[in-house]
Amino acid sequence: MDTNNTLQNKVNQIVARLRSQGEDKPDPDQAFSMLDHKGDMIYLVGEVHSGDVDLDKEYRMNKVMLSAMRKNLVSCVQEITETGLLEALLRVALPSGLGFDITTDSEIPEEQFLLENHGSAAVVTVSIEKDEDLVQFLFDNKVTVMTLGHVTKGDIRIDDYSYGNIRKI
């Protein structure tokens, strides 16, 4: 099976599981838990494939992300757990009905980049108006950041391949 078919199956499985768990409903108590606006930038903050988990790095990154939230530099933050980047993105896309268009790291196999996590990382979104401020803030705090893409009206696109609309999956 090729990568696109494998990922399509994973997208369908993850969305079905999240919906069955009620994760597709907005939670008013979680202000930073869903995509906010079409056009917002999406970043990978921290290191997904860094080997062993470094608790000091994780603690520092969490402090920086909390500070970014308090400064209103981010509109959405989702920690990437052992279930991977793809699930983190779908988890924040479902409640809002918005999608994402991302480009993976060309140095890491696509499935590994999207489905595995061996480090401390989060997906964050930021409005275009605060984009430069967030990147500078992360740089100043020595936190690794990678541009992934942007929020869409509902389409799920990874490396220029469409996996459907989040509302219809």
Summary keywords:
single chain; 169 residues; alpha+beta; Phosphoribosyl-aminoimidazole Synthetase, Chain A, domain 2; seven-stranded mixed sheet; 5 helices; 24% strand; globular
Largest sheet: 7 strands, mixed
Query: What's the order of the H and E elements?
Result: HEHEHEHEHEEE
Contiguous low-pLDDT stretches (5 residues minimum) are: none
**Widest sheet: strand ordering:** 2-4-1-5-3-6-7
Secondary-structure class: alpha+beta
What percent of the residues sit in helical stretches (DSSP H or I)? 25-40%
What is the β-strand count? 7
CATH superfamily: PurM-like C-terminal domain
For the record, the count of structural domains works out to 1
Structural notes for this entry:
The protein has helices at 3-20, 55-70, 85-93, 110-115, 131-140, and strands spanning 41-47, 76-80, 99-102, 120-126, 145-152, 155-158, 161-165. It has 169 residues and is α+β, with helices and mostly antiparallel strands. The protein has a single domain (3-24, 32-165), classed as PurM-like C-terminal domain (Phosphoribosyl-aminoimidazole Synthetase, Chain A, domain 2, Alpha-Beta Complex). Strand 6 (155-158) and strand 7 (161-165) form a beta hairpin. Helix 1 packs across helix 3. The mean pLDDT is 91.
